[in-house]
Each structure stands twice: as structure tokens, then as C-alpha cells.
Design brief:
Elements: H1 6-12, E1 16-18, H2 29-40, E2 48-54, H3 58-65, E3 74-79, H4 84-97, E4 102-110, H5 114-121, E5 129-133, H6 143-148, E6 152-156, H7 168-180, E7 185-188, E8 197-200, E9 209-212, H8 215-225, H9 231-239, E10 246-248, E11 252-255, E12 258-261, H10 262-271, E13 273-278, H11 282-290
Parallel strand pairs: 1-2, 1-13, 2-3, 3-4, 4-5, 5-6, 6-7, 7-13
Antiparallel strand pairs: 8-9, 10-11, 11-12
Helix pairs in contact: 1-10, 2-3, 7-8, 7-9, 8-9
Length: 294
Amino acid sequence: MSTIPASLRALLSGLIDYAGLFPPAALPMQQAVENYARYLAGPDAWALARFVLPVSRFAEFETAMRTIRTIEPWGLSALLGANPEADLAEVDRFNDRNQGRTVVDSVEVKACTPDEICHIRAFVRGSITCFFEIPTENPSALLPTIHAIHARAKIRTGGVTPNAFPSSESLAHFILECATYNVAFKATAGLHHPLRCVKPLTYEPDSPTSVMHGFLSVFLAAVFAKQSVPAADLCDLLESRDHEHLRFESDSLHWRDRVVNTGHIREARQRLAISFGSCSFEEPLSDLRELKIL
């Protein structure tokens, strides 16, 4: 880890929420829990963030955790279902039961209107952070409300079908709107690879392929969005399929003729681009190593 440029470490630290329970991996609970424990104890733990699971699978998770020895409490992000109020009450009970072992410190929930966002937020207790998954189109209709209630946004950046991937234009617009309204966000799905590419949508041998966004590109776009880079340039970055014009140094990163210092990268990660959910922790890092970025 000592050879990683500080600018790259700032960009990648705590970046990946492990969502091994979800497609396309869709691992059994025990395997996903054991994987996360192994990642926490491994050399790449600095890039790992929370374990993601639905509230509906809390009991299954607690059973799996009986075989796991923890050094410090695991951070969990819980997905709320169709009844957010009941699920949030269950989150409180879960945290009471598992003090010192695991803690749900963030929740994620879909919402489409300001009233729905405010209603759900009223049931979130304590210091739990709430991420609202909102439609990619017209985010400005909801971001002011999310900002006002001190919550965060969530964008779906892919899935297991081609139409699940937003266009580069809409993704760049979403990131810029979040920067404008001072709303931090996380991304989910379809970001297994660092750069824009054509890859299989699932791990099945006969899986169809599709153009996918790159997680490195998305989070670099967020860093540059904090520097007021135009939307057209962010689209160019999101659509780039190589890293020829990208360079990481100890005190800054360079993309084409633009330079951002490491302190600004840390600020962008803390205040704008929080993390992305991936059903694989190993694949994104393996790809970075293959490209000799990491």
C-alpha cells in the first residue's frame, strides 16, 4: 500500500460497499459474510466500506455472524423495503441486539417525491445516514429536499439488463446537480470495472453484453464536478475507455490539462461522492491492477 500515490489512495479509500448478496453474484449469506470478513483482514481493506443487506435478511445475517470473529463492529448499510417505517423500527432493534458486533449506520431506500422523502426521514433515528435512491431524470426536483433534511442521494448506474444503464449525459448531469445542491451521493450496480467498457451483464457463460460505466470514471467525474468542470467534459471523461491522459501523483491527479490536488480529492469523497455498491470487491481492484493503475 505504501507505493500507492496519495491522490489515488484518497480517491479509492473506503470506496466499495460490498453487496455480494445481490445480482449478478447473488451469493448465499454465509459466503458473503465470510468474504467480507476476509476482505476486512486483507491487504485491500483500506478500499472497503460497508456490508450491504436488506432488512428482510437480518435474521439470516445474524445466524451467519455466529461463526465470525470480529475485531471491531462491522458497518452495515440496510436496504429498506416496501414498509420503511417498520423496517426502520427493525433497524433499531437490530442495533440494540448487536452492539459491539455490527451496526447499521446507513440505510438506503427508493423515493420519488419530496413528501415521500420527508415522511421516511422522520422515522430515521439517531445518527443513521439515509440515502434516497431517486430517478436519474430531473434530480433537481428532489435534491433540494434531500439537502434540507441532511440526507444523501443514491443513483442506480447499471444492472443486469442494458436499459438499466443511464446515459453518460444523464449521469454527468446527476453528478453536477448533486454538487450544485451540496448533496452527497452513492452509486449502485454496474460499476465492476474502472473504465467504460463492453462486458457481460452477468457471470453466466451465455450472458449478453452491454456498455458499462467505469467506477473510476464516475468518481473522477465527481472530483472534477467539485471544480466546476463543464458537463461536456464530464461526459468525455465518463465515455473514455482508456487512461492514457490520466496520471496519479502524491500531491495531485492529472487528467488532460486539468489538475486536482489530493486535498480536494479527499474533500470530494467526503462531501460529494461517498461510495459505490458492488457484488464483487475483488474484481474492481483486480481490473485496476491489470491496468497498472493500482
